[in-house]
Amino acid sequence: MRLTREVRDTWLQHEQRSHGRKNGYVTKGQAERLDKWLPKISLHREDRVQDKIPRDVLLGVEIGFGNGEFLAELTQQYPEYYFVGVEIYLPGIAKAISRLDACDNIERVRVSQLPAQYVLAQQVEPNSVDMIHVNHPDPWPKKKHHHRRIIQKEFANVLASRLKLGGILSLASDIDELAIWMRDILDEVPDLVNEAGKGGFVPRPEGRIVTKFEERGMKAERISQFLRYRKVGANT
Ligand SMILES: C[S@@+](CC[C@H](N)C(=O)[O-])C[C@H]1O[C@@H](n2cnc3c(N)ncnc32)[C@H](O)[C@@H]1O
């Protein structure tokens, strides 16, 4: 079913189509949960994350959370954290909200359907985030579409600037060429240190869940690569 215009206009500001995919339809059960939860946990375009969470809590961000399985796992693994989940695809948000509702941790999550580039630059304070996760971002394999890849030099600097000193940026990709692309950009950000050493990848983190897109990669016999950066300076 399609969400009411009121719900869409009030809570979902990047709807319609993202990269050609239909983006406005959800199941009846999902629509009910969205109606219940979006007014409580959705970020408006004008909101500042720090005004929407308690003061002095630990903060994590997941960019492009897809169906929310990793985000839900994060809330279980880190009960002392609040999380901001950013995802432009409405059916993903709908699935994630159902999942978070079921695991009872939804009160510690804020969601945005705006592009991560906007959310991080405009809605998150500098030096305020303890961990950022980017899992299996869209590879945009054609060279002419590389500019659509989420990790770009400018956005890498924004990510670094939003981390607290000592904060961690973790990334995963099952596409070798994209993993190398992300590593090469992030290795050059002055305040970030690659925990595997420049040019390296870290081993698959122990106990890490397999996301939908990692699983898809595995079925196609692609081995995922993992990156982990620590913020060590405050120049960005
Ligand atoms: C390939 S999927 C990976 C989903 C999930 N992280 C996983 O590992 O299964 C990439 C996701 O990033 C989302 N995405 C793409 N560009 C985005 C942006 N600028 N801001 C937020 N999310 C974005 C897409 O809608 C999609 O759900």
Summarize the structure in words.
Strand 6, helix 6 and strand 7 form a beta-alpha-beta unit. This protein has a single domain (5-231), classed as Vaccinia Virus protein VP39 (Rossmann fold). The chain is 34% helix and 20% strand. The radius of gyration is 17 Å and the shape is globular. It contains 8 helices and 9 strands. Strands 5-4-3-6-7-9-8 form a 7-stranded mixed β-sheet. Strands 1-2 form a two-stranded antiparallel sheet. The chain is an alpha/beta fold and 236 residues long. It binds S-adenosylmethionine. Residues 18, 63-66, 86-89, 92, 115-117, 135-138, 150, 211-214 line the site of S-adenosylmethionine. S-adenosylmethionine is lined by residues 18, 63-66, 86-89, 92, 115-117, 135-138, 150, 211-214.
Q: What is the third-level CATH name, the topology?
A: Rossmann fold
Task: Report the principal-axis shape.
Answer: globular
Rg measurement, Å: 17 Å
- CATH level 4 superfamily: Vaccinia Virus protein VP39
How many separate domains make up the residues?
1
Instruction: Note the total helix count.
Output: 8
Could you report the average pLDDT, rounded to the nearest whole number?
91
Structural class: alpha/beta
Order of strands across the biggest sheet? 5-4-3-6-7-9-8
Approximate helicity band: 25-40%
Query: Tally of extended strands?
Result: 9
Taken as a percent bin, the fraction of beta residues is: 15-25%
Ligand species: S-adenosylmethionine
CATH architecture: 3-Layer(aba) Sandwich
Report low-confidence residues grouped into runs of 5 or more. 15-22
The topology string of helices and strands comes to HEEHEHEHEHEHEHEHE
* Terminal residue distance: 44 Å
